[in-house]
Amino acid sequence: MASKKMIDLDALESGKAVVAEEVPVTTGPGAVAAMPKSKGVEAMFDRYKKMAFLFDISGSMGEGMLPDEIDKLYRWSDEILEKFLAYMRKQVKEQFLHNHSIYDQLTDAEYAAKVEEVIVQTITRELQMAGAEEFVDEEDEDDLTAQGKGHKAQAIEHFKDMTEEEKDDMLFDNVYGFPPVIGQELKYHIIRQQLHRDNRCGVELQKTGIKAVSMAKMDVMKMAASNFISERFTKVPDAQVLAYKFDDNTVLMTSDITKDGLLRSVDMLRPEGGTNIFSALSIAISEFKRAQSAVGSHHIVLVTDAESGDGEAIEKQLLPKMKELNIVLDFIQIKGMGEMGWYYKSTLETLKKVCAATGGEFVEVNTPTDFNQKFLKAANRLCLPLAR
Is 114 exposed, middle or buried (CB count within 10 Å of its CB: 0-12, 13-18, 19+)? Predict the structure, then answer.
């Protein structure tokens, strides 16, 4: 690598400063060309950030997504949706016990105690996410334990102050994954769970006669990734974009870091195997550590249905490394026709917290158009290093 002065990141002020020196000139895969003088900071970070896409190719990625035309497929009305909500409220206890694998009969007091435990856990996680930027290093175990106890104590006090209606609403959200209000999420749930079939809820939902085709999660992901790659390399011909596919194992999709090379590798993706998110993140982090971006800007876009149970290990072992290397994590959960198993939801909650702690974002997507829009937004995120 040619010896040229590195950019002084501490001296840069987002949106105002200019770059007076050139960045290093490197050779080989992911090479960085000389940086023209007087470039705006945001433009510089956008051009020279190093990206890694982690594409889930587990077997479940072959499942279909909800169609874009869901609003046009049925004759929805607020009255009909209110009836579905009423049915779901009646099923909350049964569904709650099922989600938590409780098959024995509980007394009213035992059930109330379990509900309180779960709601307090939920509030505690929300407090942790709100303070994610104040993440305590794993080595500071005493501080971490004290912080956790403090969050739980706050959550218990908050629970005591809640009205019964507020507790019922939070329980509904915990059980179904969305609040008990009329909206798009309610429609998605009705169709995913087939609540509209055979008048099973005592609610008749009429079809409009419009036909729609469900696309596989894998095909939707490939389409959006191809669109971004084409746009990115048109804008930045020497973009540093790595792409990994992962199931039980993680593999670099191509060493040909060009538009054509990446497009070919995306086109060859096929669903197979399980889901090991920890391994995928570990390999991307190791690559960033081995060959860091010249401007200290690193970005991971994780696309998965999140059916994995390794959330705790990701938070404890990988989050400190991500913060050290200024890695922003964007996580896109791609949802299919079925609901996520309850045993995977702890991983989902942990990944949300990791995103918040790194300056990234968690989003869930339900339809092809929804995915394409949110994928492009995440992939085009400007990843400035955190203030130091």
Answer: middle
C-alpha angle 34/326/311, rounded to 5°? 140
Give the separation between CA 374 and CA 376, rounded to whole angstroms.
5
Write down how long the chain is: 388
Helix axes 78-90, 164-176, angle to 10 degrees: 90
pLDDT tens digits along 95-150: 999 888 888 889 999 999 999 999 998 898 888 877 654 444 444 444 445 555 78
Q: Would you say the C-alpha torsion 216, 221, 224, 230 has a positive or negative sign?
A: negative
Name 16's Cβ contacts closer than 8 Å, sequence gap at least 6. 41
Phi-psi region for residue 24, left (φ > 0), alpha (ψ -120 to 50) or beta?
beta
Decide: 253 and 279 in contact? Cβ < 8 Å: no
Look at residue 54 and give its three-state secondary structure.
strand
Bridge partner list, 257: none
Verdict on whether the full-model pTM lies above 0.85: no
Three-state DSSP state, 213: coil
pLDDT, one tens digit per residue, over 37-60 is: 335 778 888 888 899 999 999 998
- Bigger pLDDT: 336 vs 77: 77
As a whole-number percent, the residues of the chain with pLDDT over 90 amount to 57
Longest dimension (CA), the chain: 74
Domain regions of the chain by residue span: 9-63+215-379, 70-199
The CATH architecture of the domain made up of 9-63+215-379 is: 3-Layer(aba) Sandwich (3.40)
* Distance in angstroms (rounded) separating the CA atoms of residues 155 and 166: 14
Of 283-287, 292-296, 377-381, least confident by mean pLDDT is 292-296
Helix or strand holding residue 329 (H, E): strand 327-334
Whether 191 and 199 have beta carbons less than 8 Å apart is answered as no
